[in-house]
Amino acid sequence: MGLTLGQKLIKSHLLSGGMTPGSEIGLRIDQTLTQDATGTMAYLEFEAMGVPRVKTELSVAYIDHNTLQTGFENADDHRFIASCAKKRGLKFSRPGNGICHQVHLERFGKPGRTLIGSDSHTPTGGGLGMLAIGAGGLDVAVAMGGGAYYITMPEIILVNLTGKLRGGVSAKDVILKVLEILSVKGGVGKIIEYGGEGVKTLSVPERATITNMGAELGATASVFPSDEITRRFLKAQGRAEDWIELLPDEDAEYARVININLSELVPLAAMPHMPDNVKPVADIGEIKIDQVCIGSCTNSSLMDMLKVAKILRGEKVHPDVSLSIAPGSMQVLNMLAQNGALSDMISAGARILESACGPCIGMGQSPNSGAVSLRTFNRNFEGRSGTADAGVYLVSPETAAVSALTGELTDPASCGLDLAVEPPDAFVINDNLIEEPASEADADSVEIKYGPNIKPFPVSEKLPDDLAATAILKVGDNITTDHIMPAGAKILPYRSNIPYLSRFCFKQCDESFAERCKSEGGGFIIGGVNYGQGSSREHAALVPLYLGVKAVIAKSFARIHAANLINAGIIPLTFADADDYDRIDQGDMLRLEDIRGKIEQGLPLTLVNAAKGGEYPLMGDFSQRQREIILAGGLLNYTKNQK
């Protein structure tokens, strides 16, 4: 039996474990990336490890999230990250250079390489034929120090593409269709591999849009072959030498095959408030809209922007609509300025934002109260836009631009527009916003600069013999990391200040959560299905750790968040019988007796409900390494113990 593309990438980087789905494997990591919302913590963790220099082939520190500088906090974090990068051997992408995933695709991604990043949308790199995976900051710090990255060996799902996209239908509609089929939890524990004749009709930026939103499926990674299309993209970026051909074996076998005929797709939209709440634009109807935001790591490439400019050329944005556009990188913005497309956007009435994440993570452009906002982003969780009662729809750039002109949700396929855009033979290359690290000889003279907002991360203790605490919070299904630790302009500047951040933990679910944790000394969290989906932000584990959360007991977990909980020293456990979830009420006193001994020996676990007298069997499907991390009180303690 031949190998799938995902299996080939894993096999070539396998350091430990066997390639049996469900078993733990350790991977050699070639490249890492961080962004500033998670990077400060990652570099504090790297400093704590005591490793003088990164040991990867390439590591890049990007500034793209916290670029709104309304106080000293973000600027101080940027200075800290820049000094760490210079001293420790990383490239530093300065503010204004662009969104990490867009820039990495343009300048650094290589087919066949492994990449982990402290951002959940790192799988964007799969559009180039990389094994690219989102991870917590501590996992990235360990990889930068030369350590392996551990995951559960995924199953491989093939999405077999046939046909060709029609006018007005885009790559965004492809991934929205996959989300409609699989749901936001359907990719957990899986790699989504794209193949078939239809792949040859998609450019690298289109492929990257699809792999980017694999994060919304909960998938470990998404990957396209590296073929002639890939070679042409890299050649146009001046990186032809980075290309290698990567294809699955003809007799490869997959856990599941999903067939999608591109010719039959129509423009789609994800309705509020979940990326898998997908319907055809034509079926939703011509609802009045208030705001359109075009950009994000999903849809800010040059190809996306040129199509938007083509729609806006000679037109005027509807007077009731606020249209903002954020090109994904300095390269994209530069080329739009040079070819006149930027002028078309400005003349139509678009507000041009800097090349950064911006509105996607609630950093500005919050819509008016009760607004309908069309966004080309990847997430539409309730309140993520910064406006609690806004309805956010995820759409393609074509749908967004056409609707900005009409003032209502409009199907671009019904407009008869010619949106064909050819990729350039050569991109404009200007890397003057990428700073090189100091040489090893000069590194000792570089001072790491800490600002007053940078506080130490919380330190956990080794696991005690028994755990007893109240059910401090009970939540439902699909709780996101935005619920646990919100983003937004008011909170993101404090990502390096865990004590301050703790005030906002679970505020959307329960405004009294932080205060109750402090008064009661923490507790257990009871969760539903797919607990912790969304961002890779480890703050959603570190802040509960600071507040005294001992364990999270849920029906199921999102992959990255479960790993982050273990890394923080919080135990993620699942109900053996999902109905037991209904037998626990918030405020019940719960006990995990002999928890240390049972974790150490891999024995079955039981949760005792002292309030009701019930006993509920739990599952903790941990590898030996994960058990040792939990016993040590987290990955940092475990790593120090290995020295």
Quick recap:
The chain is of the alpha/beta class and 643 residues long.
Tags for this entry?
643 residues; alpha/beta; 7-stranded mixed β-barrel; 6-stranded mixed β-sheet; 22 helices; 27 strands; 29% helix; globular
Explained architecture:
By secondary structure, the protein is an alpha/beta fold. Helix content is 29%, strand content 19%. It contains 22 helices and 27 strands. Strands 21-22-23-24-27-26-25 form a seven-stranded mixed β-barrel, surrounded by four helices. A six-stranded mixed sheet has the order 7-6-3-4-5-20. α2 (36-49) packs across α3, α6 (171-182) runs parallel beside α7 (204-212) and α11 crosses α13 (341-348). The longest helix is centred in the first third of the chain and has 17 residues, at 72-88. The two termini are 41 Å apart. 57% of the residues are buried. The model has no long low-confidence stretch (mean pLDDT 94).
